[in-house]
């Protein structure tokens, strides 16, 4: 992406371009495809640009994961405010719409995030990022469940976040033609069970 007057990006803008390219490669081809050479080609930059900013594949993956986590945590917190009233009235519907919108708009981003999640199982350096990302989601969902009347919002939030991940992974793998239609009955049943549990 050229900068002002068509000049190639420099400094932090170039670093961000490399990380965004790494996430695209992850989402489209998987972690094994993430090499300095492949990411440089995806970013439209010389190989020296990636090796200047990132000494190793591990460093590139960790910084790409950090970017993905920070971006998504900010997005989730913003959406939780926007969806708050709707979630109080129809939590299952709000969650269905949110997941269906994510699947429609950001399939590559979701695949990149889940690829990195799996990589965190193999690469201990990635685990603190995954733990922070999951914790942020659980905190947001806990607040939503508390507002919706859950008798056990902390425990229910952990269960709901884990379930949402499983549902998203299934939709990514199966590519259901109408994800909302598949997700809605599952989420209605789960939310009803959580909100009535004593």
From TrEMBL:
Keywords: DNA-binding. PROSITE patterns: HTH_TETR_2. Signal peptide: none annotated. It holds the Pfam family TetR_C_31. Residues 12-72 form the HTH tetR-type domain. Coiled coil: none annotated. It comes from the Bacteria. Residues 35-54 bind DNA. The keyword DNA-binding applies. PANTHER family: HTH-TYPE TRANSCRIPTIONAL REGULATOR RUTR, TRANSCRIPTIONAL REGULATORY PROTEIN (PROBABLY DEOR-FAMILY)-RELATED. This is TetR family transcriptional regulator.
């Amino acid at each position: 992406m050229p900068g002002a007057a068509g000049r190639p990006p420099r400094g932090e803008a170039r670093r961000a371009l490399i990380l965004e390219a790494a996430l695209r490669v992850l989402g489209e081809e998987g972690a094994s495809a993430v090499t300095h050479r492949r990411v440089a080609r995806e970013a439209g930059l010389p190989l020296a640009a990636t090796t200047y900013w990132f000494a190793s594949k591990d460093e590139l993956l960790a910084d790409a994961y950090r970017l993905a986590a920070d971006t998504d945590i900010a997005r989730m917190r913003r959406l939780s405010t926007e969806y708050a009233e709707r979630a109080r009235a129809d939590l299952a519907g709000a969650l269905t719409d949110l997941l269906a919108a994510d699947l429609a708009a950001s399939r590559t981003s979701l695949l990149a995030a889940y690829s990195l999640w799996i990589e965190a199982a193999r690469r201990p350096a990635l685990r603190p990022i995954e733990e922070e990302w999951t914790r942020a989601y659980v905190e947001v969902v806990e607040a939503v469940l508390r507002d919706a009347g859950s008798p056990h919002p902390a425990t229910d939030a952990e269960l709901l976040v884990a379930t949402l991940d499983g549902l998203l992974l299934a939709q990514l793998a199966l590519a259901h033609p109408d994800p909302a239609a598949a997700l809605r009955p599952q989420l209605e049943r789960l939310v009803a069970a959580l909100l009535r549990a004593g």
